[in-house]
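Model: You mentioned two targets. I'll fold them one after the other.
Researcher: Yes, keep them separate.
Model: Target one:
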Amino acid sequence: MNPNGWLIYSSEDAVRNQAYIDWVLQEARHLDMNIQLLYREDFSIGHVNSKLAILHQRKAIELPSFAIVRTIDSLFTKQLELLGIKCYNSSLVSEICNNKAKTHQYMAMLGIPMADTIYGNGDSFDGSDVPFDYPYIAKEISGRGGKQVFLIKNENGEHGLKGAAGGWIIQKPAVYGKDLRVFIVGKKIIAAVLRQSETDFKANFTLGGSASLYELSERERDIVEKIINTIDFGMAGIDFVFSEDGSFLLNEIEDVVGSRTLSALSDINIVRDYLLHIKSEL
């Protein structure tokens, strides 16, 4: 029997990602996988008669064998898992990787090299709590895509920061305008993309930086493999920055990762790789 699955987006994100959605559905048909696009807003989760329940448009719905969850909602993903639905990515990945403080906390236990980091206290930002000299980096814990990331050069920069949902992390800066995204599927490294900017300390391709394919060294591959052998990822982007001596420093892990840059630089079909991984696990 062909595996049945849900592809779940928020309705707003679905509009922006229609090309990617079409790509997933097309590849699924080629692989004899039945995948249905559904919107997070149409679901209700809770418990009824002391049993966990999920409703779609206020009605019971037949549950799939798997779900590709392309929205950030670890509670929702956990509900699906408790109802027996295999989720990609898992609720654990969603919880850790969409919180920069939790990402660094988890990876520090593994001894993964990272820039020195202070986990902020609550939603407020108080420069007097920062133990680093200027300049330093302030990041909103839940920020994505290079947004809500600030280079603080002096006290005036601190005054420009407002409260953030979930708080901030504070880091010593790495080499400006250069980072690396490693695309992974399951336990496999698919490709690495070097992103650089001549005009900004952030190198995100979507923010105007340039990009090129990058060959990982043996030492760099070892670091990536240590990460992916500890957590069961479906598909993710593991982002690194570089220290002054050129070595890797883990920056963050993208749960709901996009692949526009990889598609622009290569003919790698990462969506097909992802669906084949899901199909093999099922």
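Model: Target two:
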Amino acid sequence: MAYREEFEQGAVRGNAAREGQPALAPTSEQKAPEPVAREAAPTVRKRGIGKKPVILAVLAAALGFGGYEGYGWWTNGRFMVSTEDAYVQADITILSAKVSGYVQSVAVTNNQSVKAGDLIAKIDDGDYRFALQSAKDKLATQQSAVTRIGRQIEAGHASVAQAQAQIAAAKAEAERAEGDFARQQQLARSDFTSRAALENAKAARDRAQANVQSAEAAFAAAKANVDVLAAQQNEAQRVAAEQQTSVEKAERDLTFTEIRAPVDGVIGNKAMEVGTYVQPGARLAALVPMASVHVDANFKETQLASLKVGQKVHIEVDAFPDTDVIGTVESVSPASGAVFSLLPPENATGNFTKIVQRVPVRVSVNPEIVQQGILRPGLSVVVDVDTRTSAATEKTASLKE
């Protein structure tokens, strides 16, 4: 109100001055607002001056932040090669059935940790036990046949020895008969014996010689019989070996009814329950070996020049943004990801548009960090490779420590 009254009085004095009339003398009531007007002017001036510190503070903060970021880039950032196209991977093992049958029991659940050799599931093994017993029975029968032929070979060797003895006896008889025939011939020249006696001696000699030949033939037959038995025994032994293989196969099939973990890991994506009929090759569950967890980072081809095996890597996991995981460049893929795709691009036909390709780079992580469960296959991460480091520099640093 004081400002308004002062304004009105000023307007009246201005009009009077223009008309040549004396200005109205200020009254006591009109003089009262003057101190208020004098006090209001400095207040306006203070408001205008108060904006400057704020602007200066903002400029100082901007300069400080820019300097900080610039210093960080100069000392560290310009040596980092980064990509957000990176994911945690692992060599996942797919557990499958080797034999068919109904699932009798399941010993694990999803997200359960298992050790190598732990039982995962069991298939009904009744049929496989019968098959194993049948194979064992056939093997026992064949082994008995091998033993029988062995005994026959022993008898054949005895027959050979007997035939050999008969040859000796026949030869001795032939020598005696030859001597009698010679004496009868000498007596017949002197007419001291009859012609009938000479003929009998001659017949006895021929018979003795025939007996020698018969004994020799019997000896040869006995030896041939032994050879035949030996061949039969060899054949029977080979059949027994086949039966032994059948037994081992039946035992192996029986062991396949128990599905066990091949490595340490965590069970996931379980696709079996009690009573499920499974076929050979059917997917039963996935086993994630946490020890093989690593990071696959897809860098642009323009970033590869600075990447070397052994360089230090900073990994930021999206699920744990405040955790800095340290890794090492393990290897670089021999080709870009597009080459290994199901349908590789064919740039030799049609219009060509150049696209920056990405090359997978494997980053290994300390097993102690992996055991903490921070890195799980499929998680997204941000990878920063420190190009100032290498396998040689890391080794030198470790030696200095």
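Researcher: Noted. Anything on target two?
Model: The chain has seven helices and 14 strands.
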